[in-house]
Write a structure and sequence with these properties.
Elements (H helix, E strand, L loop, with lengths): L1 H22 L1 E11 H12 L6 E7 L4 E13 L2 E16 L2 E20 L5 E13 L9 H16 L3 E2 L1 H11 L8 H9 L2 E2 L3 E2 L3 E11 L15 H26 L5 H24 L6 H22 L4 H23 L9 H10 L15 H7 L19 H8 L4 H4 L6 H5 L9 H20 L8 H16 L4 E4 L2 E4 L7 E2 L4 E2 L9 H6 L1 H20 L11 H14 L3 H11 L4 H14 L6 H6 L2
Helix pairs in contact: 4-9, 4-10, 6-7, 6-8, 7-8, 8-9, 9-10, 15-16, 15-18, 16-19, 16-21, 18-19, 19-20, 19-21
Length: 618
């Protein structure tokens, strides 16, 4: 009796435990999507490697018995892979160096294939389930039994022998995902990755979906309160350094996409993504509200927007040697998206090794992760900002004991670079704000601003109907941003004006992080004319690419509203477009909105001399 009771108790415990285990697991699908241009590229690489994408299956008797396939085309029909192949067949009797009674046929063989992915080897193979013969004119055709008996067994065997090894991209996905999990959840993650297995392949109109099924522990509690701890100095520095590496990868993705023929809307998506991502970082860094996993958050947000463009323009058009790596990158990015939807308490975080792995999948140079201030011509071309050619290399640096050399050296600028386009020490000193009479100073700054706005207008970057508004906009922005100052005195040294959050410089307060790669950093700092032109170009960009393309059809904004809208975006990025108009509608304006409107109204009224109040107090 006691033994029976113990047995029943053990069975009950086992039942309860297994029920909890099953309930605690959910099957998640991580998709690998192979578009047909990419599948065609992989097939050619594996099975049609001879000249003109061909494969010779038989060549006997000096071509008397001959069978060759070429020019495979891949698409979908009725839920099957449709493989359209050109066939060149000849069947004769080779005798004495001659070919007797040869039968020849050239045309197209259309095969309908059922794909299969091995759960053991992750090799993709195909089974022929139907076929059609078409003549050279692509009309239905019939051939003799002799030729068909030659064609069918050899082609069926050849196609069924094709193996596309998807183990490398699957391994890349696993190697990328595992380190993203925190140490306390590493064992769960290892179990999850070990459970990866192929699901049922779906043949769709534009692509073939190969789902990877994996068992994930239900570790997300939707009611769990997510508290954002304020990052302390050391952790903040690490987060900033990681974000800078991520920014390097983002620039690479955007410039890679920009090399393709894009629509205006696709170009706008790219510029939006870069600006919104950078503005968010700058804002949260300034407010000290930056989350420790900002890179993961931004990666997920960015990939949702870039994924369709990457699949359309890059994945199926890359070199075959890079194809599986690119496929692994897309699959890894998609997997990160899936896990993000499961819940933030999975604790995934992208680290430097994770970014390096992603760069490796793209077959790119890891040096792109280094945060540098050099001009990026591809970014300039995309944004249509700044000079289109890369900056010339500075000459070999020569030792100098001049005061100018010492000043620039003190601020980390080489004399060679400073000697190129940067102003002289005398030129810089003329932009020191006088202690009393600022009338002449204001006039000179105003001339610089007028020159910059006219330069941008002359390049055709401002529509004629908006040019009068634009001419008033630029001095009002400079007034709001810097009070007409390019330089300030700190201690006993004259240096460039730097914003309170250490990110924006000069008379137009160009944010160096947001516009990295588009403008020369040192010229923004030390050349007031260059800084003014940069600010004018950026303002024109927001005017023409955003403010004048109002998403609400039929709504026309007057000049005053346009000016205020452009400044809101200049100050906070493209996302301010809708936000500012909402604030204006509800009369819940920010202080910056009101202060700019005040300055703009004074410029309109010809009261620009009031700038002296913020310069010297009167």
């Amino acid at each position: 009796m006691i033994k029976k009771t113990i047995l029943l108790l053990a069975l009950a415990i086992t039942f309860i435990y297994s029920g909890v285990s099953e309930a605690a697991l959910q099957t998640v699908t991580l998709p690998i999507t192979i578009d047909y241009p990419l599948l065609r590229k992989l097939l050619v690489n594996h099975a049609f490697q001879e000249n003109n994408e061909s494969a010779t299956l038989i060549n006997e008797g000096n071509g008397c018995i001959y069978l060759a396939l070429s020019a495979p085309q891949v698409s979908e029909e009725n839920g099957r892979i449709k493989l359209d192949i050109q066939v060149n067949a000849r069947a004769g009797t080779p005798l004495g160096g001659r070919c007797f009674t040869p039968l020849e046929w050239q045309g197209h063989l259309v095969l309908y294939e059922q794909p299969f992915l091995s759960p053991d080897t992750w090799q993709l193979s195909f089974t022929t389930v139907g076929s059609r013969l078409l003549g050279a004119d692509r009309q239905p055709a019939r051939i003799t039994d002799v030729l068909w008996d030659l064609i069918k067994p050899h082609i069926w065997s050849y196609i069924s022998g094709i193996r596309i090894n998807l183990m490398p991209p699957v391994a890349d996905v696993k190697n990328f995902l595992l380190p993203l999990f925190p140490q306390e959840k590493r064992r769960q993650a290892e179990g999850m990755l070990a459970s990866m297995r192929p699901g049922k392949i779906e043949v769709q109109a534009a692509s073939m979906h190969l789902p990877i099924l994996t068992d994930v522990a239900s570790i997300y509690d939707p009611d769990e309160k997510q508290e954002q701890a304020r990052l302390e100095n050391e952790e903040l520095e690490r987060t900033v350094a990681l974000w800078e590496e991520w920014d390097g990868l983002l620039v690479y993705l955007i410039t890679t996409l920009s090399q393709n023929v894009l629509t205006l809307e696709e170009k706008r998506i790219l510029t939006n993504v870069l600006l919104d991502t950078r503005y968010r970082f700058v804002t949260e860094l300034s407010d000290r509200t930056i989350p420790h996993d900002i890179v993961r958050q931004q990666f997920v947000s960015v990939w949702q927007q870039l994924s369709p463009l990457f699949r359309k323009h890059v994945l199926g058009h890359t070199e075959v040697s890079k194809a599986l790596g690119y496929l692994a990158f897309v699959a890894s990015a998609d997997a990160l998206l899936i896990f993000d939807r499961i819940g933030p308490t999975m604790g995934l975080e992208i680290s430097t090794p994770g970014l390096v792995r992603l760069v490796g999948m793209l077959h790119a140079d890891p040096a792109l992760l280094h945060y540098q201030s050099e001009i990026n011509p591809d970014l300039q071309k995309l944004f249509q900002l700044g000079p289109q050619d890369a900056s010339p290399k500075p000459p070999e640096e020569k030792k100098s004991s001049s005061m100018l050399h010492r000043i620039f050296e003190a601020f980390g600028i080489s004399a060679a670079y400073a000697a190129q386009p940067l102003p002289s020490f005398k030129d810089i000193m003329q932009w020191k704000v006088p202690e009393s009479d600022v009338g002449d100073y204001l006039k000179r700054v105003e001339n610089v601003l007028v020159s910059s706005s006219e330069s941008v207008i002359a390049q055709g970057k401002v529509p004629e109907d908006n040019q009068a508004m634009f001419r008033n906009l630029i001095p009002a922005m400079a007034w709001q941003e810097s009070c007409f100052r390019q330089f300030v005195v700190k201690g006993d040294q004259l240096t460039y004006l730097l914003s309170y959050n250490q990110s924006s410089v000069g008379v137009m307060q160009i944010n160096e992080r947001v516009w990295r790669g588009l403008y020369e950093q040192n010229r923004l700092r030390w050349d007031i004319s260059y800084n003014a032109i940069a600010g004018s170009e950026i303002a024109a960009h927001y005017l023409t690419k955003y403010a004048l393309r109002d998403p609400e059809a039929g709504r026309t904004l007057d000049d005053n509203t346009l000016a205020r809208l452009v400044y809101a975006m200049y100050n906070g990025g493209p996302s301010q477009h809708g936000k500012f108009l909402k604030r204006l509608e509800t009369e819940k304006l920010y202080d910056s909105d009101l202060l700019f409107w005040e300055k703009y109204s004074w410029v309109l009224a010809g009261e620009i001399n009031k700038v002296s109040k913020c310069l010297i107090g009167r």
